[in-house]
Specification:
The protein is an alpha/beta fold and 346 residues long. The chain has ten helices and 15 strands. The protein has helices spanning 13-19, 38-48, 57-63, 75-87, 102-115, 129-139, 160-179, 291-295, 297-310, 320-333, and strands at residues 4-9, 28-34, 52-54, 68-71, 92-94, 119-121, 143-153, 182-190, 197-204, 209-215, 222-231, 234-241, 245-250, 275-278, 337-340. The chain has a nine-stranded mixed beta sheet with strand order 14-13-12-11-7-10-9-8-15, covered by helices on one side. Strands 3-2-1-4-5-6 form a six-stranded parallel beta sheet. Strand 12 (234-241) and strand 13 form a beta hairpin. Helix 4 (75-87) runs parallel beside helix 5 (102-115), helix 5 (102-115) packs antiparallel against helix 10 and helix 7 (160-179) packs across helix 10 (320-333). It starts with a strand and ends in a 6-residue tail after the last strand.
């Protein structure tokens, strides 16, 4: 099996718990680890099998022959080090947000194009098993979406832009992954000197639209996605609850269909085809339905490495890194109003 040699910059809590462990699911070998804190770099090299340790990222890039590099840290680091990696014609994986602002992301994408490589942003929800299955229903033509509802709650934030870049970017990107390019953004901000709540309506170039409810007053992350549309000529609904359960509702007999000359003649149906439910099977062993896969962390790492080996654009692509950032810039500039993305110059 062909293995890509990868380097990893950043040994913080998120990368150590959620990204490094996923390398074992991909066709790669961890060659080098870098962090300003040498003890953390040595720790991760020992745990995840890297052969070399660095505290100087540029030295690592110059000395190691790497096929790809992961950078997981603050958005400023993604941008500063990301440019250096791309300038060396090395494919880049960065966590969300890819950079502090849209212009910086655009600069990174332009460098990637010029050098014939790519920058992939860690939108792991695109690779979550229920979301991936729902998207397959859509791309195959089995399900025709009309309207989406996305609810995303998390811990407290009193900073709108920080909330959008740090957390809400996930659900914004997820909506884009289902419906495509955004044409108009309308938002309404609530912040009574406390946690921020935000209602966002996205109208897509296709004419479809989605409502996103963002709330930073939750004790932990909670998310729910509902996409309504048609399937096999009838109305249908996909519900994904906290990534761990997916429901497919198809049009069957409604209660009004059960009316009869007398109540004694009513004979309700029990049809399992009307509502189908998927949830992870936590039985051990079950490698196909464990947390790394149904949450999407394994999928995003595997996709990055596969794209390197197969010399192609990953999913999400370099251009996909720009789409959610356009929405965030529009909301940041006009949190209580409507913005046309094209006219805004995004």
């Amino acid at each position: 099996m062909e293995l890509a040699r990868v380097g990893f910059i950043g040994c913080g809590t998120h990368s150590t718990n959620n990204i490094y462990p996923m390398l074992k699911y991909a066709r790669c070998r961890l060659d080098a680890v870098c962090d300003l804190n040498e003890d953390l770099a040595k720790r991760n090299a020992l745990i995840f099998g890297a052969s070399t340790v660095y505290t100087d990222a540029e030295k690592m890039l110059d000395e190691r022959k790497l096929d790809g590099v992961f950078v997981v840290g603050p958005s400023e680091i993604h941008y500063i080090l990301g440019k250096k990696i791309l300038e060396r014609s090395i494919p880049l994986f960065v966590e969300k947000p890819p950079a502090p602002n849209l212009e910086s992301v655009r600069e990174m994408v332009d460098i990637a194009k010029k050098k014939g490589v790519f920058v992939m942003t860690g939108f792991m929800k695109r690779h979550g098993m229920p979301y991936k299955k729902a998207r397959e229903f859509i791309t195959s033509g089995q399900f025709n979406p009309a309207v989406g509802f996305f609810k995303y709650g998390h811990w407290q934030s009193n900073d709108l832009r920080g909330m959008l870049l740090g957390m809400s970017i996930h659900i914004i990107d997820l909506a884009i992954s289902f419906f495509g390019e955004v044409a108009f953004v309308t938002s309404c901000l609530y912040n009574a000197k406390g946690p921020i709540s935000l209602a966002v309506t996205l109208q897509f170039q296709s004419g479809q639209w989605a409502q996103i409810m963002l709330d930073s007053s939750q004790p932990r992350i909670q998310e729910r996605v509902e996409i309504s549309g048609t399937m096999n000529g009838g109305n249908a609904l996909i519900i994904i609850d906290n990534i761990q359960q997916m429901e497919l509702h198809r049009q069957g007999r409604n209660g009004i269909d059960l009316l009869a000359p007398s109540l004694a003649e009513i004979n309700p149906d029990f049809d399992l085809r009307d509502i189908q439910v998927w949830r992870p099977d936590y039985g051990i062993p079950n490698m196909g339905q464990n947390r790394p896969f149904f949450q999407g962390f394994a999928g995003e790492v595997r996709e990055f490495v596969d794209a390197i080996i197969e010399k192609r654009e990953p999913y999400p692509s370099s251009e996909d890194s720009l789409k959610s950032m356009r929405v965030i810039e529009a909301i940041s500039a006009n949190p209580n109003g409507a913005t046309e993305i094209i006219k805004y110059g995004l």
